[in-house]
Amino acid sequence: MIKLYGFCYEVGHLGVVYDFNPFDSVYNLVLKDDFTWLQRINVLVRFASLLGFLHTIKSPYRPLTVRNLDCAHIVLDKDYNPKLCDFGLVTGGIFPDRAKYKCCRVIGSYGYLDVGSWFEDVFAFGNILLSLISKRVFTEQDRQNLSPYVFKWAYTKFLEYKYGPDSDSDKDDSDRDSSKKHDSDLDLKNDDSNSDSSKKDDSDRDSKNDDSNSDSSKKDDSDRDSKNDDSDSDSKKPKFSLVHQSLVEEPDFDPSDGPKITALGMDCTHNDLGKRPTMKQVLSFLLNLEVVKKHATISLV
């Protein structure tokens, strides 16, 4: 948080003095190639630490909630350390509910607002994380063009990864109907086979059973081989990651961190509030990334 030197209130005018010399905002830096993977992780770790502190502050009042988090409200100093500079909607502690005014109901920023629980900072942090790792940011032009928010884009990418780009509900229904028909045909064939076999003598039945067992054994082997092939295919499939390719190619990037930090961003923006982590859990997860373990420069001091 930026340091407050003092304030002055005279004749209805309030003035504040901060010790702050900003370099740029996260919003302006997200798309830039010289904003490195290590610097992005440093921003996430330090900012998660700040939110974790605000959310767990011990006092007789409620924990502090910022409620107005987005990439534009996080500015960096010359060492790329994040500073939170907008507290206009902060609630908790000695502050009242800033979301309710006489004139209108005030909400947070486009693309970082959770409709179901818009006061939750975890959701906004998840969007900031996804923006930083994927080099995407929601702009005013995106809003006018009705483009998807970053978290919706991420969810779409996950569905494409899991089901394929051409998957849809109609195709799933068609597959289910085809499966039911296939099962029905198998039942009819089994009934005909049983009827014919009852007319034959014992020796024919024994011979047929031997052939059936042989065919069944071959089919089981074939199915087993097919399942093994599918298993091998799944094991070779790379884990889901939204980390931008240019960041993946940086020397400080560890391949194991990509899927992990992507999953964290997806969890923070999960539709089910009960499945979202706390900021304390988020910080603990970030500190266990390989890039953080390898670089002592990323600290909470």
UniProtKB/TrEMBL annotation:
Residues 165-260 are annotated as: Disordered. Residues 1-298 form the Protein kinase domain. Residues 173-237 have a biased composition (Basic and acidic residues). InterPro entries: Kinase-like_dom_sf, Plant_Ser_Thr_Prot_Kinase, Prot_kinase_dom. GO terms for molecular function: ATP binding; protein kinase activity. PANTHER family: OS01G0588500 PROTEIN-RELATED (PTHR45621). This is Protein kinase domain-containing protein.
